[in-house]
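Re: that chain you flagged

S.,

Sorry for the slow reply, it's been a week of failed gels. I finally had a moment to sit down with the sequence you sent. For the record, here it is as I used it:
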Amino acid sequence: MVRVLRCDILSADAFLSTEKLQKAKPNLGVLKEYKKREEEWTRRIQEAEETTKQRDAQKQHYDQLRKQRLDEFMAGFTAISFKLKEMYQVRVFYDPSFFSLHLTSLKTDDYPRRKCRTRACR
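Prediction finished late last night. Pasting the C-alpha cells below so you have them in one place:
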C-alpha cells in the first residue's frame, strides 16, 4: 500500500494545528500545583528518612541494653555456679564434720567403700 501524500491536505492540517495552538489557553496553575506537590513529597521523604534513622538508633540502643543485661546475668550466673560448686566440693571432699555426721548413722556394710579423691588420702 503506497500512500500518496497530498500537499494541500498536509498544509491544511498544519494550518489547523497552528490555529488550535494559538487559541489554546494553557493552565499554568497546573505547573505551580505540580511544584508545590513535589516539594511536599520531598519534605515527607526527608521526614520518613529522619524517622527511620531515629528508629534504627533506638533499636541499636535496645539491642545494646539487651546484650548488657545478658552479659551481667551470665556473669552472675557463672559466679553463683562456681561458688556452689566450690561449696559442694568443700562439703563433700574436705569437711570432716560432713563425714562424721553422716558416716556414724550409716552402716558400713550397706554401702561399698569409695576411694578418697583428695590429696590427703593419697
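What I noticed first: Residues 62 and 68 are 10 Å apart (CA to CA).

Talk soon,
D.
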